[in-house]
Amino acid sequence: MAITLTEPAAERVKSFLESRGSGIGLRLGVKTMGCSGMGYVIEFVDEINDDDEVFESNGIKIMVDTKSLVYIDGTEVDFAREGLNEGFKFNNPKEKDACGCGESFTV
Amino acid sequence: MALLQISEPGQTTAPHQHRLAVGIDLGTTNSLVATVRSAQAQTLPDENGHHLLPSVVRYGEEVIEVGDAAVEHAVKDPSNTIVSVKRLMGRAAADLKSLGESSPYEFSTGDSSVAKIKTRSGDVSAVEVSAEILKTLKNRAIATLGDDLVGAVITVPAYFDDAQRQATKDAARLADLNVLRLLNEPTAAAVAYGLDTGQEGVIAIYDLGGGTFDISILRLKQGVFEVLATGGDSALGGDDFDHVIAEWMLQQAAYKKTPSPSLVRLLMREARSAKEQLASDNEVNIKVEAEDFKWQGVLSLSQMRDLIEPLIKKTIMACRRSLRDADVSAEDVLEVVMVGGSTRTLAVREMVGEFFQREPLVSIDPDKVVAVGAALQADVLAGNKPGDEMLLLDVIPLSLGIETMGGLSEKIIYRNTPIPVAKAQDFTTYKDGQTAMAVHVVQGERELVDDCRSLARFDLRGFPPSVAGAARIRVTYQVDADGLLTVSAREENSGVEASVDVKPSYGLTDSEIETMLRDSMDHASDDMHSRMLREQQVEAERVVEALDAALKKDGDELLSEEEKGNISEARELLVNAKASDDSENIKAAIKKLENACADYVARRMNSNIRNAMQGHSVEEYAGKDQE
User: Fold this and answer.
1) pTM for this model (two decimals)
2) Is A44 an interface residue toward B (CB < 8 Å)?
């Protein structure tokens, strides 16, 4: 399995990294928090940690720590627009239930 | 599922705990909202893709319209459509009268001194109108970001006084927006260009909008921005460029009549689009056809430059003045930031570049740069940036003073002093036996208290009576980091104290704002004259009072009838001179009276010494000397 970015998502990440001026890639992961148990982490990466698995998708390096990987393996991250809002979306095959707002989830 | 944004490493927030903050540029003509998303500061567009929200509010039959919808109705419904409300912020009714004919609104003054505009939805204040604009921007931000906001950084002109800043905060509160802080517009522009992390030194912010011009000189020192000086012209902007181009068209077409309002509007629009085209082209074809006006011609870049050069020169003059205020020279300026749509005009960029001898910064859209800077600051204040502290220093926009005898303002803290600051000054009593002193706190640059803004009054009472000039009253002005002024007075000999926290006086019936602050430069010579006159009048009063007291005590004893007549004549002369408005005349009369009294004063001195020494021997005094 792997972690992937859709092309629009990869383009956005690339331009964000460029405008930020530093950073080597994107960190994806999970954190125990929120109303349904867990929440997604999506951050810029300045350095790779020892327990990181590194993926590459559409030219973007994706770092995922091994603990998080079991929850999100197979996830595809997309960039979407809903009305005025726009942002990244996790299409996680392991996600069974999400809270109403979709910001936290259970597997 | 929800849409997520990329956070800084380790800064992922728990769901529903986003620290979303926005920066708002609440402008005279247009307003903007911006935020930082995935490390990028961007202004947020509305559903039609428009970033700029015209700062226009219309109180309609059923709904309140803000922005483009209100603009459309402005011509049909002018009295219920409010434009440029920023100019009214923090102003009292009395202030607005002095704005004169230019305002199309009908003002009503109820029981409070806040000016209210009459609309069909009732009377509304400038704060309420601004709140409508803020609400619209807030709703746009919530719709865009998908969550409620932690707060906002709202920008204000660097020259806004306490009352205007407080009014802006009140508008935010009405709009249910948490103000993280108010930020000076020029500082926000500097932040947008990342100058806060750049080289330390002096930065100039040149802000030429549609109808206003502001120049601010900032200094970056140890990551802190200090506003050294501000200046500008509240009635000079890109609209004036359009105006001279329109006039040129009338001249070219040899149009002799007075143009109708609709023709003026049409020509202004043509002039504007010609000006905008000349930002990228070398010449532009203009064709205007209206009722009785038909003209076609070519306007070249250099022709336009000749037309608008006098206007740009005016802004350069203001730049020079501000540099002088800031006590720096043009060579000291490291960077020049261009703000405002009118800085797109090439001639403006060139002349500003020439004056400061460097290429001005223009890479960020000059309409958006202030909002972008505010968003960056909001992001830091909301806690989304680790270990990055961006402290911004503010200065006192207008001098804080105290009223002294004769209605003069004695400045205690000068304008452009960085806050927090505390300054003290000693005063004394004016009359024998005085046991109280009134402290009147004023703000402004003018010499006469009547021309300054009254902030507060209080009395220091109950100190022991003494002769005039013996009491020592220390008045301390203290301004904290939030700009709140505390004034305290203490009679040093007895320890009697009194103090007051000064809240901006707009809207408070007990401390009326007396007159709008006018540019002190315009009145410098009047003011100097007034100050000299008042000073001489006070001096004359003091001399007459002292003379009367002396005459009562020993006049009959020490003076002959003839001498008394002479003195009385000179006294009469002075009393009459005092009523005139010629300070030289008063001065001469004082001198005359002093001359007339010279013998009398000498005799009094002798008699006083005689009285004091009576019953003592010379040896006693000699002995004292040896001690």
Assistant:
1) 0.63
2) yes
